[in-house]
Structure formats: C-alpha cells, structure tokens
Amino acid sequence: MILKRHSLQRDSSTGIYFARVQVEKTRKRFFFDRTRKSSESKLRQLERDLAAGRVQILPPAALFPTAPLQPVPAVAELRLSLLIARHLDWVQNNRSPRTFDVRQHFLKNFQKFVGDILVAEINRLMLENFYTWARK
Fold first, then answer.
1. Distance between CA 10 and CA 13 in Å, rounded?
2. Is residue 111 one of the residues assigned to a domain?
3. Which of 45, 50, 59, 95 could form a disulfide with 99 if both were Cys (CB 3.0 to 4.6 A apart)?
4. 26-38 tens-digit pLDDT
C-alpha cells in the first residue's frame, strides 16, 4: 500500500504537533511532541508502521461491540453513580488522561453535591445550584 506523506500541524492552544491520517474512509489524529523535529521523526515512523501493517486505523464501528456488555436500565431507573462510572470508563478508554482527571473531578463533586439520585430527577435548578456551589 502506498501512503501519502502526511504533514504536521501545530495545535495553537497546547503547542503540540499532530497529523491527520486517513486510511480509506477512517480518519484519525495522531499527537506527538512539542518539538517539530522529534514529531517529524515520529510521524515518519508512524507512516512506515502503517505501510508495513503494524499499525491499523479501524473504523469506529469496529471499536465498539454491537451489543452492550451489560443490559442498560431505562433512564427512569438509572442511578447517577452508575452513569458516572460508565461515562468515566468510556472517557478513560477514549480520551486523554488529563481529560479523564478533569471529568472525574467534576463528576465526583457533582455526585457529592446531589447524592446518588436517579438520573431522571436531575433538573436545571440542580445544575445551576451545583455550578454556583462549585465556583465558590
């Protein structure tokens, strides 16, 4: 498979270099370092690995099972603690560690604020009160 030579782009907010790589109809961003030279060498290594088949870019449907692992309770029965646990599990597997830390911090504080209630009981007033409480 002949792959095109990809170019680096720099994230203006973080200063980290990344490249967008597309194989067939699946596109993915690969993040590297803050220095252009080392990012360039890692990108070239990634291109060699893609060409050799050592790295694969799977379509989103291949990443998730077609059936849920556990039966999902109806929203009326879903408790906040279960929803937070599932969301944090997903974030940990699909987002950066820093994103996981931030989400965990806010969700655990929200759970402390409202308790382990049913998700259906959450309303706008509760969210606004939490926002005010969290800003203090």
1. 9
2. yes
3. 95
4. 788 888 999 999 9
